[in-house]
């Protein structure tokens, strides 16, 4: 059994770009160049052990300790204080548990597909200061409101002539307040530009994948499948905002234009208007730009409230990574609403953030999205969220209206199109779902990998179970949700043994999974589909 354990560890560590140094029985010391790949390797090992069978998995319960620090390679050994700290964290972990130091957690929190429990500060032998420790709880997964952070796919489509990537605006220094403001302003601009039907816009996830990389515009345009790149530097000094912009044709390397602007913070949306219209006029001409200007969303009346909303959005973008993170995001949205009760997006984002909480009750939270639409019925994200709420409540006709309204208001937003595709899968129209996913990918070849999962679910809706397996196996890292649909497809194909192995891997990462909890979130309109899915998952070994 130790040989099997060592083989699995060696395979999974190597697959994630790591290197094993010391081995002793079922223990190993490994080094990784990427923090998130270290976490993925630990998850892969746990899934691999589960795949060897229930008896084997119960016998071999590994403890994982992960830490980020400088180390030294000495021959075949790894030395340094960081090694000692990782060893102490490992010794304090639960059997089968994956524990992380705060240093490593902070590096992955913005792109982690996993959720964690904050265990607070702990003391370890021979370490003078207490350390905050996090325990991996399982896959964060995906729900109707938002998907967990995930890596983008690889571009594979020709470049559209009117195509643009808005890179995350940068701010001087390492001031956290400057960073969240710069990223928030970038997102506002992306949302505004997505309203233009003839503009092909790279999604937020694709653009933000280049954050901090200082890549050449020609390489960015090639990777994202776009022609133009907009870069910017923003700085907020007291009540004033300074912004420098540069629009580059990545194919030729020529600057299309560059500009510097300074505005009062209270005039931020005038600045956003000016940016939006200048970019649109440059790429599309004035006709559509002038038409869109008439349909602009309602502005906030209180800029302090808007600032609070940006702070909440900054936390919300990492989803339900920890309970405290989610509570903090909801708290900022509440402060934004208290400061400016007339600004609709704060209400919409509040229900979106609250949906990550285990105590979330859609019947109690629905009032927030209703208020958001009362204040701003032309907000496409609010329309999409209301569509998701209607699905949870079983009102599929109303859900259809809100999803279609969202797509009408933001026809070039690949994220909205891909999220709306889920609605058509759940109501039994997989062809429409696949059509929307294809259109989303055409708009943005670097959509996050959860779109592959949605494609698999569309095939599940159509009863094409072989294609379900094909889609789920394309995922670079499966989630518990993708594994459960793979299980159901394997049961439908008569692959009982394969389904049981897949289920063991799913439960190994999310041990609290039950059929009842999972089905509650999968809003299939046809009760027969829900019941068949529930029964098939139980047949594969998922607790009721």
CATH architecture of the domain at 2-139: 2-Layer Sandwich
The separation of the N and C termini measures: 31 Å
**Strand order across the largest sheet:** 10-9-11-12-13
- General form: globular
Give the helix/strand class.
alpha/beta
Q: Give the C-alpha Rg.
A: 24 Å
Mean residue pLDDT: 84
Describe this structure in words.
It is a single chain. This protein is α/β, with parallel strands linked by helices. Among the domains are: 2-139, Nucleotide cyclase, GGDEF domain (Alpha-Beta Plaits); 163-294, Rossmann fold (3-Layer(aba) Sandwich), CATH 3.40.50; 478-544, no CATH class. Helices cover 53% and strands 14% of the residues. The protein has 24 helices and 13 strands. The chain has helices spanning 2-15, 35-50, 54-59, 81-91, 102-108, 176-193, 204-208, 217-224, 268-284, 286-294, 303-316, 323-339, 344-354, 362-375, 380-392, 396-409, 414-426, 430-443, 450-462, 465-474, 480-492, 496-509, 515-521, 527-539, and strands at 19-24, 27-31, 64-66, 72-74, 77-79, 98-101, 114-122, 131-139, 163-166, 200-201, 228-237, 240-249, 255-264. The strands form four sheets. Strands 10-9-11-12-13 form a five-stranded mixed beta sheet, with helices on both faces. Strands 3-6-8-7 form a four-stranded mixed beta sheet. The longest helix has 18 residues, at 176-193. The chain is globular, with a radius of gyration of 24 Å. Mean pLDDT is 84; it is low at 147-156 and 286-292.
Topology diagram in text:
Layout: H1 2-15, E1 19-24, E2 27-31, H2 35-50, H3 54-59, E3 64-66, E4 72-74, E5 77-79, H4 81-91, E6 98-101, H5 102-108, E7 114-122, E8 131-139, E9 163-166, H6 176-193, E10 200-201, H7 204-208, H8 217-224, E11 228-237, E12 240-249, E13 255-264, H9 268-284, H10 286-294, H11 303-316, H12 323-339, H13 344-354, H14 362-375, H15 380-392, H16 396-409, H17 414-426, H18 430-443, H19 450-462, H20 465-474, H21 480-492, H22 496-509, H23 515-521, H24 527-539
Helix pairs in contact: 1-2, 2-22, 6-9, 6-11, 9-10, 11-12, 11-13, 12-13, 13-14, 14-15, 15-16, 15-17, 16-17, 17-18, 17-19, 18-19, 19-20, 19-21, 20-21, 21-22, 21-24, 23-24
């Amino acid at each position: 059994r130790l040989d099997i354990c060592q083989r699995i560890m060696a395979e999974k560590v190597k697959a994630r770009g790591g290197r094993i140094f010391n081995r002793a029985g079922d223990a190993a010391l490994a080094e990784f160049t990427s923090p998130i790949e270290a976490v993925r390797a630990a998850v892969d090992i746990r899934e691999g052990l589960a795949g060897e069978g229930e008896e084997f998995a119960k016998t071999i319960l590994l403890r994982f300790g992960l830490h980020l620090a400088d180390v030294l390679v000495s021959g075949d050994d790894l030395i340094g204080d960081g090694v000692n700290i990782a060893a102490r964290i490992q010794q304090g972990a639960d059997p089968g548990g994956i524990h992380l130091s705060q240093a490593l957690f902070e590096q992955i929190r913005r792109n982690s597909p996993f959720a964690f429990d904050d265990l607070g500060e702990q003391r370890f032998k021979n370490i003078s200061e207490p350390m905050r420790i996090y325990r991996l709880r399982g896959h964060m997964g995906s729900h109707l409101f938002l998907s967990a952070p995930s890596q983008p796919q690889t571009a594979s489509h020709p470049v559209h002539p009117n195509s643009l990537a808005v890179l995350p605006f940068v701010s001087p220094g390492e001031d956290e307040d400057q960073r969240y403001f710069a990223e928030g302003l970038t997102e506002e601009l992306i949302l505004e530009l997505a309203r233009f039907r003839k503009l092909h816009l790279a999604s937020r996830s694709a653009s933000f994948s280049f954050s901090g990389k200082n890549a050449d515009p020609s390489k960015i345009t090639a990777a994202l499948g776009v022609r133009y790149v907009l870069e910017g530097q923003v700085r907020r000094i007291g009540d004033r905002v300074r912004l420098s912009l540069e629009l580059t044709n990545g194919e030729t390397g020529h600057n299309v234009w560059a500009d510097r602007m300074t505005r009062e913070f209270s005039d931020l949306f005038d600045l956003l208007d000016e940016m939006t219209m200048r970019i649109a006029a440059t790429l599309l001409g004035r006709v559509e730009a002038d038409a869109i200007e008439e349909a602009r969303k309602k502005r906030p009346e209180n800029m302090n409230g808007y600032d609070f909303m940006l702070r909440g959005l900054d936390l919300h973008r990492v989803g339900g990574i920890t309970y405290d993170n989610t509570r903090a995001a909801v708290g900022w949205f509440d402060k934004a609403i208290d400061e400016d009760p007339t600004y609709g997006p704060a209400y919409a984002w509040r229900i979106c953030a609250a949906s990550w909480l285990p105590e979330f009750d859609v019947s109690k939270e629905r009032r927030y999205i209703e208020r958001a639409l009362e204040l701003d019925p032309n907000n496409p994200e609010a329309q999409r969220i209301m569509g998701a709420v209607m699905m949870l409540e079983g009102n599929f006709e109303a859900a259809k209206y809100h999803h279609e309204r969202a797509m009408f208001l933001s026809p070039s937003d690949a994220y909205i199109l891909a999220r709306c595709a889920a609605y058509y899968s759940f109501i039994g129209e997989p062809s429409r779902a696949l059509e929307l996913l294809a259109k989303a990918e055409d708009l943005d070849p670097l959509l996050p990998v959860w779109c592959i999962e949605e494609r698999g679910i569309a095939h599940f809706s159509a009863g094409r179970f072989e294609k379900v397996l094909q889609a789920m196996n394309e995922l670079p890292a499966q989630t518990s949700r993708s594994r459960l649909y793979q299980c159901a497809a394997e049961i439908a194909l008569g692959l009982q043994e394969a389904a049981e192995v897949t289920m063991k891997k799913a439960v190994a990462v999310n041990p609290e999974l039950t059929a009842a909890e999972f089905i509650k979130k999968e809003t299939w309109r046809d009760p027969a589909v829900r019941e068949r899915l529930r029964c098939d998952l139980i047949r594969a070994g998922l607790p009721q």
